[in-house]
What does this fold into?
Amino acid sequence: MSSPIATSTGSKTVEKKPVKFSNLLRLIPWAWIEASTKGAVLLFVASEAEYYAKTFGANDFGGGIAGGMVGGAAQAYATMGFCTCMKTVEITQHKLAASGAKPPSTFQTFMGIYRAEGIRGINKGVNAVAIRQVTNWGSRFGLSRLAESAILRITGKEDRSLLNGYEKVLASGLGGGLSAWNQPIEVIRVEMQSKTPDPNRPKNLTVGKTLRYIYGNNGLKGLYRGVTPRIGLGVWQTICMVALGDMAKEAVEKLTGDKVTAKH
It folds into this structure.
């Protein structure tokens, strides 16, 4: 590592320090990486899964559940395990810094986990993430399609393609809000990936062990910790991925003249 370089600017001396790779890692927007990659995986896989579910005779509600569940599982194992682990590491670092302790860098924490537990340690909690995403998107797509069917009956329209943008957004908002029933899975995921030392936390956590640990300490209220902002998040994400996803496909059809075969 090169030594710091001092440069003179007028009457002031500015010390230039070498850039460390570990510091660069702090600039990586893990939430952005996760959001973009998981969104792409979800839209593609869910579209295909819903299409094939309907070819086997599933209705809109069943097709929506099937597409959302398969898409949720694909995004969890393809991108989210690693990214959610790194986000949790950074959140824990901020908490340690706020308490006055000097936290290790993101890279140091990453390498420490990798040396101790290998790739399984980096993806710790990925099964909880997968359960969350399967139930998340199965509920969001399924309940959104159910809400769309209800709106069709109320308005007297015969086909989902006749729904306007406001009706699609309303259906997705309802589906997203109601999908927060699985908040305990998110609480379990956060606890499994937490790097905050806790002598009372069981070793080698599984989903079942974590559930018993949280319920034993905080009861049902602990399992639904943070459910209100989660409802808002569910509404927003479902509108973006379901309602706006459908609108984007329709826009592509008009632009290219080609019909999207695996269309929701």
Observations:
- The chain is about 70% helix and 5% strand.
- Residues 19-25 have pLDDT under 50 and may be disordered.
